[in-house]
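Progress report, Aim 2. The chain analyzed during this reporting quarter is listed below.
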Amino acid sequence: MAKIIFILGGARSGKSTYALTLAKKESKKAAFVATCQALDKEMTQRIRRHRKTRPKDWQIFEEPYDVAGLLNKIGTKFELVLIDCLTLLVSNLMLKGFRESAIKKEFNRILSALNKTNAKVIIVSNEVGLGIVPQNKLARDFRDIAGKVNQLVAAKSDVVFFMFAGIPVKINPSTHLRL
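Predicted C-alpha cells for the chain:
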C-alpha cells in the first residue's frame, strides 16, 4: 500500500519545489507524472523550465488525462511517484467534457491504482477555495470540483502539507472527516 504525501497551496506558494525537495531525498528510482499540457507559448516555456529542475535519472511521464491508466501500467516499478498537479488534471478533464461525477470517479481510480503500488507517493495540488467567488459558472464549477477532489485526496493521505510563501505547514489528516 502506498504512503501518500499531499502538498497543496496557492499559486507560486512553493508546492512543486517542496515536492521535488522531498522526492529527491527519498529515491533515485522515481517516476514524475506531469499533467500539464503545452497549449500555448507561455506554458511551453514553463514546462521547459520545470523539466530542468527534475533529476536526470527519474522517468518522466506526461499524462494530461488518464493518470490512473498510467499508474496501472507502471505498477510497482518505482519506489517513488510524484504527481504534479491535480488541479491541472481537473482542468484538463473538465475541458474534455467530464462532469463532476466522472472526475470524482477518475480520482477514485487514481487512488485505487496508487494503493496497488508500494511506492511513496507525493501529490501536488492547488488550493483554489481561499479566494473570492469566481464571476463565471465554469470557474465556480472548477473551484468546487477541485476543492472536492482535494478533500478526497487529503482524506486518503498519510501526510498533508499546506504551503505558505515557501514554508510547509504539516496538517494532521487524522482530524479530517473521512469521506
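The chain has one domain: 3-175. The helical segments are 15-26, 41-53, 67-74, 86-95, 100-115, 137-156. These observations will guide the mutagenesis work planned for the next reporting period.
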